[in-house]
# Entry
Amino acid sequence: MELFVASDQPIELSHGWRGQPYLTVQEVADTDIGIRRHLTLPYLRHLGAHTGCSCGFKYGQPNAESTPEEEAAGRQSVAALHDFLKTQLSAGASLQLLSRWFTEAFSPVEASDISIGSIGGDSFDLPENAVWNVRP
# Structure
């Protein structure tokens, strides 16, 4: 799974959001430029969880075969994602998120609006092939 964030303001790179390894903010490779056509905001970054990819942005899923350590790391990654998005929104940025699987052609449904409160809770998992406009 991959998660991208687009913003109307520049986004700094980070090898560990707030010094922790649960969220990385990375440059987008030239091969990923095709995803820009699904986003309307100019600044684009890849968001990685504790796993390095975006697959770690999940926890509390029924039938998931994860260890207690994986669950805890997933919670921390989602909490870091929430904090990152909240920080960007508090600075006045407009944000969009795009999620997709690495190996599948990207064909999202129409972009939907979500509130920052949708990131987290009792359980969380990224949807496949989605574009979200993130609201405070």
